[in-house]
Amino acid sequence: MPCSRPTARSSTGRGAASAVPLLTCLAAAACSSTPPSRPPGLPPTPASVTRENPGGDAADPERAALERLLAEPWGSRRDRFNTLDVPLVDGKSWRRVRIWSHPTRATFRYGDEHYAALSVLYTSTSGPSDPDSCLDEFWAKNAPLADGYGVRLGEAQIIRTTQEIDGEVRPLVFKVLDGSIASVFASDDYAGAVAVYESWPGTCLVSVLAVKATEHPELARRVRDRWIDEGAPKLRWISGLSDAPKTEAR
């Protein structure tokens, strides 16, 4: 499977990230070298923390990267078409990527080792466009891909809540579950969630987060839960849009 790169198309490598990270999964890839590690228990030196390696020179860079996703403040990035504000912890450290054969509204990864990835999809629908209906449509379309990629999904939990946009309360639905993937490239576990929003009539807006949970599953679930509680509700169309944007993807 291809390792995502910040280019027009992902190039072949040792791992993968998909348009829907939870379903086609992100097989973590050793796409870059890592600096010599510090003694166990010490945080990474600030100079060693980079966008490519947010775990820096920590003895356990996966833990260090996940701890950053728990501790750093929220920032935001725009989608490829400058229409959506996408909330991201440690926002400047996420790299925008394109996923081969899976165009999205926006996809970002956290570290070259794929400690986390987030995709946003904005599509038209011929059926109802409420969040529950959009979730059903999304799942029916994408769940069959999972088996083909060697993904095994755990039991799902549905959470129905709301988000507030400029004083207006709107429904927000989550599908929360864990997954694992075993391939010739990697064997990894992920904590994931799908968020589905009320959007423009006739469209579906979906955001998908996957967090690497191979070595630290509880820590990964806390990162996911922080996104559910604090981040996902902040995703919104930029102010000033009077008409539905085109359902474009790259």
Automatic annotation (TrEMBL):
Residues 36-46 have a biased composition (Pro residues). Residues 32-60 are annotated as: Disordered. It comes from the Bacteria. PROSITE patterns: PROKAR_LIPOPROTEIN. Keywords: Signal. Residues 1-29 form the signal peptide. This is Secreted protein. It comes from Sorangium cellulosum (Polyangium cellulosum).
